[in-house]
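Reply to dn_fold:

You asked what the input looked like. This is it:
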Amino acid sequence: MKKTGFRDLEQTSASARDHISWLRQLAPVLLVAMAIRMVVVFFTYRSLPDADKFYESFGWEMGWIARALASGHGFSSPYFPWSGPTAIEPPLYPALLSLVFRLFGIYSLTSAFVILTINSILSTLTCIPVYFSAQYSLGNRAARIAAWVWALYPFAIYFSAGRVWEYALTGLLFTTCFCIAQRIGQSAKPLAQSCLSWIGFGALYGIAAYSNASILSTLPFLLGFALYQAHKAGRRWMLNGALTVLTFAAVLAPWTIRNYKTFGILVPMRDNLWLELYADDFGNAPNDHTSPPTCVNRPYPASNATELKKYLAMGEIAYLKEKHDLSIADLRNHPHVAFLVTKTLRRVVYYWTGFWSFSAQELRDQPFTPENVFYVSSVTLFMILGIVSLWRTNRTAVIPYLLLLGVFPITYYLTHPMMDYREPIEPAVIVLGTAGALSLRSNRARAEAGRARAAAGRARAAELASDLKLADAKSVSNLGKSTRRKFTNHVTS
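and this is what came back:
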């Protein structure tokens, strides 16, 4: 019993030391990350309360829903005019924003400053799961570098400190889920603690889905990876998987029940899929070959007065059902498969390079397109190098990244591949990019070491050759002396 007690005490002490160690390492990272974001907040928050544009920059649909919540209208009115209940957006971030509105005023300057500060805090805290995710895959040194890269990453800074949306909240929650998925299958905790860990994993994934429903597509794959790891380690993978799925479903159940009671149909999280597909793939979309994904001239109620009037007159469910019926009818009666395939491939390219076109219209609308293409493509190149490096050295570590990068973007390949919608997976991109940069440095170091060894080898060879020449010269000299001595002896005799 005493030995067990001492062992537990030693493990607790070691755990405390590790806890203090990573906190000490990340403290300067967190301070710098927060300071940079707050500088951006000071330059951006005053532009958010713009009544002339119906406060659209104050969160767009999420801001309008938050206004309704703060005004006592419930989860409703996803566009500026007052309307009925909605499920167009998930509830977590609008609820957070509505709390800010209640405390500091609807669309006030103070609310703008507070919500951007909250976003900045969430983005700063994402350095922590980035560190642990990189630590699992790359080791401590690379983990520190990845955390610093996230702290200084321009997209992470801008989309948290300059935009009112759920990017930072989703990034923190989802990256934590991903970090857990990497490790939980290899955990050697006792049965009770292990079950609680898997339950917590399912609960956190459900909470993250309340922030951004797009992450739902990744759960089967990341959970499958974690369960496979548990199975290989000889642990209760079926029980753990069941606990995770049941907890996840239990977390989503209240919102699903609310939607069913409100609309009379099953909507687990959001109901706007067919609106997004119709606006980008059907209707007039086949006749629009030039507009980039960022174009606003699409039939959305938020930006089109005719569509807004139709939405208000029909109600949300009837309006979205019409988009569904129009899309299916359009696909059947006017199939444009070549357009759909081509545009989907262009979205894939845009998602990973930022390139749509260099047309005059594009450069007028997006004057920094060339710089953005260079920047995004460079990040993607480092990410690919990181994947290749990890595939060669640690395939188990790279698999969850491949699952994440292969599955999550599919939703946006079919709808909007804009850079801000990539934010939930940017921490993983940063970890892989760090791996790619470090692999280049390692390759350069190995090449320099190889050149140094080659130079040393050549110097040694030259030295040996010199020694051989000297030895040969001495041999010839000695041979000459011996010959002369023999000739002298012969003459004398």
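The mean pLDDT is 87.
Hope that clears it up.
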